[in-house]
Amino acid sequence: MLNGKKITLVPAQLSQREDVYNWCFHSETSHAHVFENTEVPTYAEFCEDYCDYYFDGTRPLDGRGFIIMLGDEAIGFLSYAAFHLQPGWVELDNWLACEAHCGKGYGSDALKTLGRYLADELGFARAIMRPSHENPRAIAAYEKAGFAQSDLSPEAYLLPEHMEDYADGDYGEGGDVLLVWQLG
């Protein structure tokens, strides 16, 4: 468990993967990252992207997922991935399960909590997030947590062998905003 000021991050379990999928693609907060031109993956496709190690902890340097807890209530998901990035870089992704938990600082607290862990325990130096440019609320929340907009090229943070798959981000070329955070 990782304790923040408002929330606690609990390592996600395989039994929670379907809940995480539904929070992302079939909840009242889905509108924040699923847009008209975004194709919603099937659960099987989601499982390919968020493979077992995000939920069982077997490859902590490649990635891991956490359930964001507010007291005894699971309110969202936060993950990190590094398998596709240059050494020292990590990419974060998160979403909350319902609108009632948005705008209260829970997401920012979760990011700061995970950022400390990634720097102190796993030695990561920089984190990125790539939200859609159509999601100003997320961009503002990530900036509140410590991220800053950047114009770095993908070559600066992606491994060459992953350039083709990840350079355009989740929203296609020019569809996202690159945010960078100096950890530690």
How many helices in DSSP terms? 6
- DSSP E strands, number: 8
CATH superfamily: Gcn5-related N-acetyltransferase (GNAT)
Helix content: 25-40%
What is the number of domains?
A: 1
Structural class: alpha+beta
Radius of gyration: 15 Å
Q: What is the CATH T-level topology?
A: Aminopeptidase
Shape: globular
End-to-end CA span: 19 Å
Largest sheet: 8 strands, mixed
Spell the H/E element sequence: EEHHHEEEHEHEHE
Write the layout of secondary structure elements.
Layout: E1 2-3, E2 8-11, H1 17-25, H2 43-49, H3 53-56, E3 63-70, E4 73-81, E5 89-96, H4 106-120, E6 126-129, H5 136-145, E7 148-149, H6 163-166, E8 179-182
Parallel strand pairs: 5-6
Antiparallel strand pairs: 1-2, 2-3, 3-4, 4-5, 6-8, 7-8
Structure write-up:
Helix content is 27%, strand content 22%. It has an eight-stranded mixed β-sheet. The relative contact order is 0.17. It has 184 residues and is of the alpha+beta class. It has helices at residues 17-25, 43-49, 53-56, 106-120, 136-145, 163-166, and strands at residues 2-3, 8-11, 63-70, 73-81, 89-96, 126-129, 148-149, 179-182. The chain has one domain: 3-Layer(aba) Sandwich (Aminopeptidase). The two termini are 19 Å apart. β5, α4 (106-120) and β6 (126-129) form a beta-alpha-beta unit.
